[in-house]
Design goal:
2 copies of one chain form a homodimer. Chain A has 2 helices and 3 strands; from the N terminus they run βαβαβ. Chain A has a 3-stranded antiparallel beta sheet. Chain A is α+β, with helices and mostly antiparallel strands. The radius of gyration of chain A is 18 Å and the shape is elongated.
Chain lengths: 86, 86
């Protein structure tokens, strides 16, 4: 039986809130940091990243991440996504 | 009165779970993706990123982000953090 070859790709899907969409967690983090005495904070945005190990080619990984983002990971109404192969 | 000069720095603080710490959200995301028919997913990790706009020099921003991470944003028992100036 031929040895099974594992082609491992690391991909990251970065999910951000679209411009104009409220980011309560970011706002609360900014407030908490200011209460701790930090100055000069103009804005805080929260970003979610899914870091994945995939057993497929780079090309397949890009296509799969695109589909995962559209089907499950990103809400198209309020979020945008970016895919990066590491 | 001299014009106030704004030195804006974009910094990102990336918070990851340490090796060996359970990532229920990552595990559930993997399961959900597999239920949707995606194959070849070896692992899914969730990463939190705080994207900040800071009115300070790059040097001050690095020091401030270090302190923000230690004081509020990262739980040293289960999380590690990385700081990146954009």
């Amino acid at each position: 039986m031929p040895p099974t070859v594992l082609i491992m790709v690391n991909a990251e899907i970065r999910i951000e809130l679209k411009k104009g969409v409220a980011d309560p967690e970011g706002a609360n983090t900014k407030k908490a940091l200011e209460l701790l005495g930090f100055k000069g904070i103009l804005g805080v945005k929260t970003v979610k990243v899914f870091s994945m190990e995939l057993d497929m080619s780079a090309e397949e990984a890009l296509a799969a991440c695109e589909e995962m983002s559209r089907k499950l990971l990103a809400n198209p109404v309020i979020q945008s996504y970016k895919i990066e192969l590491k």
